[in-house]
Amino acid sequence: MKTDDLIIALTADAGRVRRPMDVVLEWLTVAACVAAALVFAATIGPRADIGEAATTGRFLFKFVVTIALAGSAFWLLLRLNRPGAAGRRDLVLLAAAPALLLLAVAAEFFSVPQAQWAMTAMGKNSFNCLTWIPLIGIGPLALLLPTLRHGAPTRPALSGAVTGLLAGGIAATFYAANCTDDSPFFVVTWYPLAIAMLAAVGAAAGKLIARW
Amino acid sequence: MQRALDGDEAAYAVLLKEVAAVVRRAARGRLAPGIGVDPEDIVQETLLAIHLKRHTWQPDGLIGPWVHAITRYKIVDALRRRGRHATVVMDTVVETLEAEAQEERPRGRDIATALGGLSDGQRRVVEAISVEGRSIRETAEALGMKETAVRVALHRGLAAIASRFGKRT
């Protein structure tokens, strides 16, 4: 087939445009949040003393970190799905949530006696954290991965990993409302491990499905 | 591009022809002759990708970087499929000039192969519109189909051709 013939065929097909990529990603992200909320409400639910906890800085700061992660991952995914839009500088944004968390960890070194550091980091909920964040996040990940087929990511594995981070950020936001370990020491020890599982699944899936 | 997204076929045809010229130049510049990749195949694969992914273009955004990124992806993809990672030739001026001097090859070997893999209905519709140059309405009359069915078959046929590129070795 000549290229000019192909152009004629493409032109005849001009009327069939799919929904804009960013709109689809936005809606599926909303759907992912709803899915996470449903699983969370049906299983572990918020901790019993959430009203009291909500007055403490440590509890609230967990949400600053997890929402920062979800927000930066969403924004980056929007750019990764658009050819030519994501540059190296955009990747720096992913460091926002870790940087916030490390600042809190640094502050925690001064407010917690050294003898309790290890105990605070281990916490009581490490197994819960490593189980529930992936369990809450897998549904959102399944909802979000198709955006890689709808969009046009030129870096499939990276885009899949960022999709996993977005699902992980959403899942961690809900899990944090249940977990009674609020110290940044605990968060920095266990949350990244749990979220990394979702990112790894996302990266592997991205390589498989994001071919176009 | 905005007009094309709004369904202006004439504007879309002009745009695709310009894009084809840009991609052809880029593909010839980066693929040395004898590498086993026909630059015209890259042109056709890129045009298909641009068509099927045009909903990822940022309205009001620059079209240049978007087209360039898709072209680059398709060139790397074509080389990867043929198992040559490191042979992208960036600045072989002489070879580029030689390639420019060659007559434009009238056929895309690979797209012809991909066409053969379509279902009969899709292939008849795609061929009627592209090779024979019929309109949607003429095709519908010739094949005894409804116009909407022709449009659907055309769209699915183009998507199938694009996805076959990825599976080819």
Automatic annotation (TrEMBL), chain A:
Residues of the signal peptide: none
Keyword list, A-Z: Membrane, Transmembrane, Transmembrane helix
InterPro entries tied to this protein: NrsF
Residue spans crossing the bilayer: 24-44, 59-78, 90-110, 130-148, 157-177, 189-210
Name the UniProt record assigns to this protein: DUF1109 family protein
